Amino acid sequence: MDRDPIATIGMIVLLTSSGDFFSPGQPAHFRLICSHSVPVRPKKGQKMGGRPRRGIDGPDRPGIMHRIRRHLLSTRTEINPMTNTCTRLLIALLSCCAALLWPHRPGLAAEQTLQLLASTFPIYQITRNLTAGNKRVQVALMIPAELGCPHDYALSPQDMRKLTKADVLIINGLGLEEFMGAPVQQANPKLRIIDSSRGITQLLHFGEAEEHDHDGHPGRPAAKDQLHEEAETPNPHLFASPRMAAQLSANIAAQLARIDPAGAPLYAANAKAYGQRLERLAEACTALGQRLRNNRIVTQHGVFDYLARDMGLEVVAVVQGHAGQEPSASEILAIVATVKEKKAGAIFTEPQYPKGVGKTIAKEAGIAAATLDPAANGPTEAPLDYYEQVMRTNLDTLERTLGSN
Ligand SMILES: [Zn+2]
């Protein structure tokens, strides 16, 4: 039986009182609880544009019963013991329903093969490192390797075919896969989802830079209402920071081990080794950040915010306030003014986007322009240490462009 428990629970219509439930002589004051009243994620976990992540989280969304249970128990202080007993009975009934309708999905048997599908190139590379040596596992990349950040991406028929074949979809999370949704579950209802950023704290949010800026400062060219909305939007580019990439790696390994217990020791060992390599890289980033002569930079889009935090760099402006969207003439002038005012050292474009506007700004502002690669894209058959190679090149570029002591 493979039924959607959320839809079923929603149809069952769970009734509980916020006052004296089933208490004689008292008017019943009912509250309807269904799947729609249980948030899948807090608001900050929603994607740019505000569309909820229902499609992605779908039947694999964790803890839905826990949330319902917590919601019911939250009224305990307001109700009498009879109500409390009724509530507990209701919870027990719900748990039985869930157990019957939503059977536990056991881990794979040791001989079973596993088709993993990574949504983006960085997640693909991390997953390849984690599963290296496991011959039962195949890792595929959904979007084209050369694409980079999938901002404004749309699912293709080829993507849908890959989704149909996959056992597990591993996503970046934090809204980067906005292009997915209901079609994912429709293509493959049994698909398991690993959200690599789930549970990671110390997130940065778009728009934070403006809060510390002067009025009308053009650091991040966007309308005021957009800034307000973006302040609630987490920056999904964890992968461009080796320190945060290590957390993504550990997260994926832990979730993968639950799905494939037979491979758990290998995933743990690979995660430890890869994590140590990424941590060494992170230490090199931090060390360089302390030596740079100028730590104020302009970037193409918000992809380097986490790396900048690691290195103590200040991103004084971004060329594309919204990824893939070139700034207007007035926004370009505003960025140039910011660069001059803040005495930024350089502007860094990315291989994924055209360099023209960045070079124009650099020329107008009289600063250097160079390319930093967030490793958001890469060759189809990239070596396992591709990310480290790219980041070491980035460190050389930063040092050469900004100067060091
Ligand atoms: Zn991006």
Verbal overview:
This protein has 15 helices and 10 strands. The model is unreliable at 1-83, 95-103 and 209-229 (pLDDT under 50). The protein has 3 domains: 5-101, no CATH class; 114-207 and 236-274, Rossmann fold (3-Layer(aba) Sandwich); 282-402, Rossmann fold (3-Layer(aba) Sandwich). With 405 residues, the protein is an alpha/beta fold. The strands form 3 sheets. A 4-stranded parallel β-sheet has the order 4-3-5-6, sandwiched between helices. Strands 8-7-9-10 form a 4-stranded parallel β-sheet, sandwiched between helices. Strands 1-2 form a two-stranded antiparallel ribbon. The longest helix has 28 residues, at 264-291. Helix 3 runs antiparallel to helix 4, helix 10 runs antiparallel to helix 11 (264-291) and helix 13 (329-342) crosses helix 14 (356-365). The protein has helices at 5-12, 54-57, 64-73, 81-101, 121-131, 157-165, 182-187, 208-211, 224-230, 242-259, 264-291, 305-311, 329-342, 356-365, 386-402, and strands at 14-17, 30-33, 114-118, 137-141, 168-171, 192-195, 296-299, 314-318, 346-349, 368-371. Zinc ion binds at residues 149, 151, 237, 301, 303, 323.
